[in-house]
Amino acid sequence: MNILQNAPIIKDLIQLVDLSEAAVTIISAAAMKALLEQHVKTFLPDALHFQRAIQNVRVRDIEVEMPLVAKKGGPTDAIDYAPVQQAWWDAILLAYKNSDKCPMRMPLEMRIMGGSDVIMAPQRGNSLGTCSIEVLTLYSARNIWQPFAQSVLDKWMALKDPSTGERLKTRPHWAKEWYNYNVDGKPWIERLKSVDYKDEKQEFLQTLADIGKDANWSLQDLQARFSNDLFDKFFFDGTVQKENDKIWSNGTNGRAH
Question: What mean pLDDT is predicted for residues 216-229?
Answer without folding.
Answer: 92
